[in-house]
Amino acid sequence: KVGSVQERDDEHGIAHYIEHMLFKGTPEHDVGEVSSLIEHMGGDINAYTTFDHTVIHATVLSEFAADALKLLKQAVLDSIFDAEELENERQVVIEEIKRSFDDPGSILGHTVLEQVYGGTGYARPIFGTLESVERLNRQQIVDFHQRWYQPQNMFVVMAGDIAENDAASLIETTFGSVKSNIP
């Protein structure tokens, strides 16, 4: 339940930036290790941000479901937001923004959204702007993450070659102890 429309004016682009950072280290795993571990299971992991939500997903064989869920939990809830990695990834996000300047579909989409939703979060580009992303700092990122990446804002969905009861049990085992840090 968090996407770019939940951003305050001084946080524009932060939801997308955080999406990038979820794969950049946890207390248990170094930069890129979560992705690497999923890939070693023969799987795939990726993410995207929309106006209304951020999705982090992994596709693995059912025999690796428990391990993949643990890795997803760590990536989503325990990312460390290393200062050096934040700066490295800032450049990646900036390049994405610059590429959108060369995409007629993006330009048209932004123009239409500005006309239809002007004055709301839906009128702003999900990636942020060059200026807004340049201004974001680590503390803002940590604060936004702590404010929005809470159990009451999350859905865990499993589909595939796994019995419903087994899936529910794995989800409960992995995420059931997660408590909100918001009173």
Name its key features:
single chain; 183 residues; mainly alpha
User: How far is the first residue's CA from the last residue's CA?
Assistant: 18 Å
Query: If you average the pLDDT, what whole number results?
Result: 95
Taking strands numbered 1, 2, ... along the chain, how are they ordered across the largest sheet? 1-2
Reported for the largest beta sheet, the result is:
2 strands, antiparallel
What fraction of residues sit in β-strands? Answer: 5-15%
Radius of gyration: 17 Å
Q: What pattern of helices and strands is seen along the backbone?
A: HHEEHHHHHH
Q: How many strands? A: 2
Structural class: mainly alpha
- The helicity comes to 40-55%
Shape: globular
Number of discrete helical segments: 8
Low-pLDDT windows of residues: none
The quaternary organization reads as single chain
Task: Give a topology summary.
Layout: H1 14-21, H2 33-40, E1 44-49, E2 54-59, H3 65-77, H4 83-100, H5 104-117, H6 130-135, H7 138-148, H8 164-175
Antiparallel strand pairs: 1-2
Helix pairs in contact: 1-4, 1-7, 3-8
What does this structure look like?
It contains eight helices and two strands. It starts with 13 loop residues before the first helix and ends in an 8-residue tail after the last helix. Strands 1-2 form a two-stranded antiparallel sheet. The mean pLDDT is 95. With 183 residues, the protein is mainly α. The radius of gyration is 17 Å and the shape is globular. The chain is 49% helix and 7% strand.
